[in-house]
Write a structure and sequence with these properties.
With 238 residues, the chain is an all-alpha fold. It has 9 helices and no strands. It has one domain. The mean pLDDT is 93.
Length: 238
């Protein structure tokens, strides 16, 4: 018991991440086997209820439980409005992308919701907001590696299920995703640390996934150098 208490800063986040991708695997596997797994391009008035239910269960159910259970400690996950002008600017970019997509029906509205809330917020809350923030007080480097590894593993699940991959193929897919999970995860962690708000990496994540042409990449580069310059200016003035 004393060992668990001593290491709960590490054990609880890891168990949360493991449970998250096991839960995700179960939901996606069930949906796939029962022909309930619709792609974002298949959203219609007839499929939207099923699509939303599967998306919520797979990506937002566990974050919702954590938020409800820890509603008085949301600042611990950096769910706050620090960098509010930057948040507003990124929301403006998302609005411009919505217009550029030129999809104003149910498909376009759900696509916007899907990339902003289901994907970006669902992933950023679990892997950066919860797992990274829980571990970083003891070791930022360990927090980056663990959160990135778990995030990478999660990305291997959907393609493996859809392609009916066997166990060796699944393991190979996991290994191929871990490096990218750590590297790209570090980028989002950098934005989180510099902005002091989970909404910044969430919005950048959404913009990259929802992007038109190279806009997402350009925004990601600009916001990185913006916070780099801002951080250096603040350090120089302090």
């Amino acid at each position: 018991m004393s060992l668990f208490k001593k290491n709960n800063y590490l054990i609880i986040p890891i168990l949360t991440g493991v449970f998250d991708f096991i839960w995700f695997y179960f939901i996606i596997y069930f949906a796939h086997k029962n022909n309930l797994l619709f792609s974002i391009n298949e959203v219609t008035w007839n499929t939207i209820t099923t699509k939303f239910l599967i998306d919520f269960l797979a990506m937002l159910f566990i974050p919702s439980i954590i938020i409800i259970a820890c509603k008085k400690q949301l600042s611990d996950f950096q769910l706050c409005m620090n960098s509010k002008y930057e948040i507003m600017a990124l929301l403006g970019v998302m609005t411009i992308l919505f217009i550029l997509h030129n999809e104003f029906g149910i498909l376009g509205l759900y696509r916007f919701f899907f990339y902003l809330v289901v994907i970006a917020f669902g992933e950023e809350f679990i892997y950066r907001g919860f797992i990274y923030n829980k571990i970083k007080s003891n070791s930022k480097y360990l927090a980056i590696i663990i959160s990135g590894t778990l995030w990478g593993i999660m990305h291997s699940i959907l393609p493996s299920i859809v392609s009916n991959a066997n166990l060796p193929q699944f393991i190979l897919s996991i290994c191929s995703e871990i490096g990218g999970g750590i590297l790209i995860g570090w980028y989002y962690i950098y934005l989180l640390e510099k902005s002091k708000s989970l909404w910044i990496p969430t919005l950048v994540h959404a913009i990259i996934d929802y992007s038109v042409s190279y806009i997402g990449t350009i925004v990601a580069i600009i916001i990185f150098f913006y916070f780099l310059k801002k951080s250096r200016t603040e350090k120089y003035n302090s």
